[in-house]
Design a protein that fits this description.
The chain is of the alpha/beta class and about 375 residues long. It has 17 helices and five strands. The mean pLDDT is about 90. The structure holds zinc ion.
């Protein structure tokens, strides 16, 4: 994770960079953020910056041996502690056996929250904890000689869920930290931390992402502008929530599209008339969103039909449908459908009655299916 991968938060990034450039590193930092915020991502980018062998003014180089290892979260001087829970998948009282799963979880998306992590490992106990064994084992973890970097870094995710004995074990270590060791505590509920722990750290307060930053993040994920605007409005700067909303929107559209295509294929006129009424009642943004989505799938099918299947970016859930659908129509029909959807979008933009546009389009697509 590099600073540039994280949307916005420029003043905080600048402060963190300066602390490295001026060698003013506190031995323990508390990344104090909100749920679905940038705390973990920033701590990772910060650790990457510290360890980088070819550090720039603005960011780590992303290329050197250290950056490459940090990018996979396998740097030998970089350690993790995070909550765990007994799981069907993995056994263990410390985070060690969970590490491969944790790396995948973080690399996929570093803005997620604890319940998502516990789901990820199929935890039976939905609380998650950092055991006292784990806290007491910190020194052992860090006693291994520094291999490559100047510092040994330990990132603790969610220290706020530690119970009293674990917290006290951590506190003891923070009171007498080992030489050349950095502790990065990442919390999204810092009000639950012992004040004695907080007072041993330098606090980095991380605000929620702004609407603009959420939009930037979603745009990078290929989310359409109108959808991104709605989601930014709903998620209050929480990127974990934003991704849930993206998925919901996608599920919603995908189900709608599949039902629509089935009905066209079966020439189910009664359904299509009803669907046209529903479509008519939607606002223009939503109508255009659905048609844009259909257009994207038709184009993907065309790519598939041309035998360039590896180009498909279709989500796994829709892939089977797309593949079967592509078999049900020929390329000329698909090209025709794409053209008709484009015309429909144009008509919607020009305020032609949506019910007519949609019914027309449905009937044309029905004919394309029959022409085969
Ligand atoms: Zn580097």
């Amino acid at each position: 994770m590099l600073f540039k991968d994280i949307p916005g938060l420029h003043p905080i990034k600048a402060t963190l960079r300066r602390s490295v450039q001026n060698s003013h590193l506190a031995h323990a930092l508390l990344f104090d953020g909100v749920q679905g915020g940038g705390g973990l991502a920033l701590a990772l980018a910060f650790a990457t910056y510290i360890n980088c062998e070819n550090r720039g003014e603005e960011d780590a180089c992303g290329q050197c041996a250290s950056c490459v290892k940090m990018n996979k979260l396998i740097h030998p001087d970089f350690h993790f502690i995070f909550p765990i829970a007994s799981s069907k998948k993995i056994e263990g009282k410390t985070s060690e056996p969970f590490l491969p799963y944790w790396r995948n979880f973080v690399l996929e998306n570093p803005y997620r929250v604890l319940p998502e992590w516990l789901d990820f490992i199929n935890a039976e106990n939905k609380q998650g904890n950092i055991s006292v064994e784990e806290a007491r084992g910190i020194l052992r973890k860090l006693s291994v000689k520094s291999y490559e970097g100047e510092y040994k870094i330990l990132l603790i995710w969610k220290p706020d869920i530690m119970n009293a004995s674990s917290s006290n074990a951590l506190l003891k270590i923070l009171e007498e930290p080992p030489y050349k060791t950095l502790f990065l505590l990442v919390s999204d509920q810092s009000d639950r931390l012992l004040t004695t722990i907080i007072s041993r750290t330098q606090r980095v307060t991380i605000p929620a992402f702004s609407d603009q930053e959420v939009k930037e993040f979603l745009a990078n994920k290929g989310v359409q502008e109108s959808t991104a605007n709605q989601i930014a409005y709903l998620c209050d700067g929480n990127l974990s929530e934003a991704m849930h909303l993206v998925k919901e929107t996608a599920d919603d559209r995908s189900a709608w599209f599949i039902e629509w295509m089935r009905s066209c294929y079966k020439s189910d006129l009664a359904y299509l008339v009803k669907a046209a009424d529903t479509f008519d009642a939607m606002n223009k943004e939503k109508q255009k969103g659905l048609l844009d989505y259909s257009l994207r799938l038709f184009r993907d099918m065309l790519v598939w039909g041309h035998g360039a299947g590896e180009l498909l970016r279709v989500p796994q859930e829709e892939l089977t449908f797309v593949q079967n659908f592509s078999k049900a129509v020929n390329i000329a029909a698909l090209e025709g459908m794409i053209q008709e959807v484009n015309v429909a979008i144009l008509h919607i933009e020009r305020n032609v009655r949506a019910k007519m546009v949609f019914l027309d389009l449905s009937l044309t697509i029905t004919q394309f299916f029959q022409r085969k």
